[in-house]
Amino acid sequence: MTRRIVVVSAGLGQPSSTRLLGDLLATATTDALLESGMEAQVEVVELRELAHDLTNTLLAGFPTGGVGRALETLAGADAVVAVTPVYQGSYSGLFKTFFDVVERDVLRGTPVLLAATGGTARHSLVLEYALRPLFTHLGAVTVGTGVFAASEDWGSAGEAEQGLTARVRRAGTELAALAGARASSGPRDPFADPVPFEELLSGM
């Protein structure tokens, strides 16, 4: 059975260390799924390409441009890798704007791996005080191991047991376990479980 892994990357540069971290985590998750006998399909939502459409979506009150397609991709995920650069001590505005337009319950029960990039390891706690509360509010199941990559991590990824490579592998393995345990549902149908008519009448 194939699991759909969606990477949501809020990196702005090209190339982007944020996108690179997302790709590494998706690869680690895919490898772990393959080891357990499952295949994976990886899709990437690049938020930099949706910046203008996200602004229009907020103003219009409904998805415009590529935002609708991105939301459909997210809704069909069996697992999500959410990765953002750190700005002003928290996730980026672009990252927050995207998840502001995600409808309620779309991510409920979905495993999410939290990741961030920044210039210094002093920002690593952003995973716990900013990202984890956001996705808990959205009802997602957050992976225990989050991954923060500072500038110095890219030159020493394989030098120590606690280096970036080891953290990526551990987080990917945890996400794969959660993704493998849940049924692949495809895009969620908001009308799939309607409230019975009698229950609606009882509340009148």
TrEMBL record:
Domain NADPH-dependent FMN reductase-like as annotated: residue spans: 4-154
Name of one Pfam family that matches: FMN_red
Organism domain of life: Bacteria
Keywords for this protein: Flavoprotein, FMN, Oxidoreductase
Record keyword Flavoprotein present: yes
GO MF terms held by the record: oxidoreductase activity
PANTHER family: FMN REDUCTASE (NADPH)
NCBIfam families hit by this protein: LLM_duo_CE1759
Identification of the protein by name: FMN reductase
